[in-house]
Specification:
Number of strands: 7
CATH architecture: 3-Layer(aba) Sandwich
Mean pLDDT: 95
InterPro entries: Acyl_CoA_acyltransferase, GNAT_dom
Helix content: 25-40%
Bound molecules: coenzyme A
Number of domains: 1
Pfam families: Acetyltransf_1
Order of helices and strands: EHHEEEHEHEE
GO molecular function: acyltransferase activity, transferring groups other than amino-acyl groups
Strand order of the largest sheet: 1-2-3-4-5-7-6
Protein name: N-acetyltransferase domain-containing protein
């Protein structure tokens, strides 16, 4: 991601309301209501152990990733890129930044809906491997893969 207009920031209590609104707008388009954290972005960002990164382009939100970690493992909680900014390397960049910040973990995990082929392709290309299929993970009829990236792949 070599666009000089792009900026990466950590979301927190000082983040401007326009940035939060930009994240909410993407979240609402990318995820159905029952999977949405649109009403709780600041809570997500400020919960102990969580980190929330946002990429802006000319001050407009184009993508974000949320992850949590403890001393042993990391977990990707959310990733999304605005429709108009996809296929420009932003999703990969956000994942790389998240992985970099969890580099002392023994492994990094995530769930991905089985129908989310683009996200699945991204995670596979970063080295994440399917560990299990979790039936009805999001709701009845909405299964997820539980994927993991072992530390040898990123340390
Ligand atoms: C998944 C998502 C974050 C990818 O963001 P992005 O910025 O478009 O991704 P990138 O441009 O960095 O692409 C990275 C890789 O993802 C895969 N990928 C992304 N979009 C793809 C598409 N439309 N078709 C096939 N592969 C795709 C490719 O492997 C790609 O690598 P390549 O460009 O070298 O082929 C984006 O599609 C999105 O927000 N989707 C909706 C929300 C979502 O599914 N989030 C994940 C929930 S677990």
């Amino acid at each position: 991601m070599a666009d000089i207009d792009m900026e990466l920031d950590v979301v927190g209590i000082k983040t401007r309301p326009e940035i939060i609104a930009g994240i909410v707008a993407i979240e609402k388009k990318a995820f159905p209501k029952h999977e949405s954290m649109a009403n709780d972005i600041l809570k997500e960002a400020t919960t102990s152990g969580n980190t929330f990164l946002v990429v802006t382009k000319s001050d407009c939100v184009v993508g974000y990733v949320s992850f949590s970690r403890n001393s042993v493992v990391g977990h990707i909680r959310k990733l999304a890129v605005a429709l108009s900014s996809r296929r420009q390397g932003i999703g990969r960049y956000l994942m790389q930044q998240a992985i970099l910040r969890m580099k002392s973990a023994m492994s990094i995990s995530l769930h991905v809906g089985v129908e989310r082929e683009n996200a699945f392709a991204l995670y596979k290309s970063l080295g994440f491997q399917i560990q299990h299929l979790r039936k009805d993970y999001y709701r009845v009829g909405r299964d997820a893969y539980f994927m993991e990236l072992e530390s040898e792949a990123f340390q």
